[in-house]
Design goal:
317 residues; alpha+beta; Helix Hairpins; Heat Shock Protein 90; five-stranded mixed sheet; 59% helix; 12% strand
Amino acid sequence: MRRWSFGLAIAGFVIATLMTITLLVLWNVYIINDYRTIHELSVSLQSMRTQAAQAQHSPGLRWAVLAMGETFFTAILVALSLFFAAYLVARSFRNRQTEWLNQTTHELKMPLANILMFGQTLQKGNTPPDETAAFLDLIVQETRRLQSLVNRILQARRVDTLHKGFETMPLEVAGWLSELRRSQTYPLVWNPPAGEFWIQGERSLLDAALENLLSNAVKYGNGSPPELSLRHDGNHILIEVADRGIGIPPHLRKLVFSRFYRAPLPEHRRREGTGLGLHIARTIVRRHKGEIGVHPREDGTGSVFWIRLPQLGEPCK
């Protein structure tokens, strides 16, 4: 969207608002201040005044007309405000979507280009054995990177259809997190607590939600391993993923869960990302009747992403 269209929209909204307010003020002045003059003029024209005209100037009708006029102009003002707000939201979403497409296209091209380059080099057949092994490792690494990106997009598509319902089953959280810890290829601090923590959920979806939080902590953790914890919180289960990274400013802590959103900070822009991971996690948690959020660590060295899920109860629908 061109820049001038945004300025034109703001100017149009301001002009329309001022015109509506002016009409509203003039309407009140005309009805209230000039009513006596209009009434006296109509009285002086006795021969032209009819019974209908008398009813027109009754006090009850006067206030009814005043109320109708103010309601009409107020409705116009509210409609203009809602239209402008909707325009701003749609424009922001389109900008994020365009930025996401550009970023995703770039991230798709890079591994594909590397795979093609290494494959063509190996195809020549004159590379030493040690270089051949290194190239094969790089091809596998870039393929996994590409697979991760595609899986992230497919996850986003899947969670967008969760309103249709999904099947759940009892899940013991401490055991689930221990299994998830063993499946990860990166270091992860996890000390299983004593006792059992039961929830009702869909395992594969919860895996996706937590893996997105863990990968986010790895990406922005400045090399420190994510710290996973679990505890009871009233009638809920609280799962926390902490990092010692760059942190998130307070005004961005809700926005980071929006679809396609990436924090407009240099430290975040230098990392690869699609802006879908936290959105996927939030959608899955909400479908499980839970809550998700982020707050800074007490020592100020990073962020703590948390998931709050109800203890074992009715299946999610």
